[in-house]
Design brief:
single chain, 75 residues, mainly alpha, 3 helices, 0% strand
Amino acid sequence: MDNTGRIVDYILALPKQLRKHSSVNYVAVLDNILKQFSITSKRLGYFIIDNAINNDSCIRELSIVYVFNKKDKRI
């Protein structure tokens, strides 16, 4: 929500991953993006990902850092 109480949606995409496609690298990039947009766990929406193991690990790690239930935030 913005300052007036209006719901605002932003779709964020990952930049090109130049290093290994590992969950550690994904978490570092996502954490940086979320901080740039001042997105806290309270304002965090959903993750749309496939079933790749590194994506599962990434969401698990982010759920620890941002304190959310990983099953509730994954589409």
